[in-house]
Design a protein that fits this description.
Blueprint (H helix, E strand, L loop, with lengths): L1 H14 L34 E14 L8 E7 L4 E8 H4 L11 E11 L2 E11 L2 E4 L16
Parallel strand pairs: 3-5
Antiparallel strand pairs: 1-2, 1-4, 2-3, 4-5, 5-6
């Protein structure tokens, strides 16, 4: 009987823990901070400002775009016109893809031009490297990692 009481108590306590406590790193739910589809960061993607640029990767870095987010992967891309920041997506997703982007790679980026920390940047929807394509968002900016599970 005492075991049943302890079990009921544990179930009761677990019922009060927010479900995000059990989420995998970086897998924020819709409407929350983080990488989820309704997050303030993902809301910066604007399908009306989508463009395609080409250039050489200068650096590949880990950044935390906003407070409360897990780190993401960011490129510095040198084009004929400018050197611009390119935001790819959450590290846990990008690092598990077959295509690897490295400094000196020639790439073509399609994404939404935004202003990030007062400077121009691109939130990437797609990265082409040679014959390989890394798809990150659909035409509306919805991230492909929404609902994707870490292996």
């Amino acid at each position: 009987m005492q075991k049943v009481g302890i079990l009921i108590l544990l179930i009761g306590i677990l019922g009060f823990i927010p479900s995000e406590s059990f989420a995998q790193p970086g897998m924020a739910w819709k409407g929350s901070k983080g990488w989820g589809t309704g997050s303030p960061y993902n809301s910066m993607y604007n399908p009306k400002t989508v463009e395609t640029i080409s250039g050489e990767v200068v650096s590949v870095d880990k950044i935390t775009p906003m407070s409360g987010m897990s780190y993401g992967i960011h490129l510095t891309l040198k084009t004929e016109k400018e050197t611009i920041s390119v935001h790819l997506g959450p590290g846990w997703f990008i690092e598990r893809q077959d295509i690897k982007i490295e400094p000196k790679d020639k790439v073509e980026i399609t994404g939404s031009r935004i202003t990030y920390q007062g400077k121009p940047a691109i939130i990437a929807a797609e990265v082409k490297k040679g014959d390989e394509i890394l798809k990150l968002r659909d035409e509306n900016g919805v991230p492909v990692w929404a609902g994707w599970r870490k292996s």
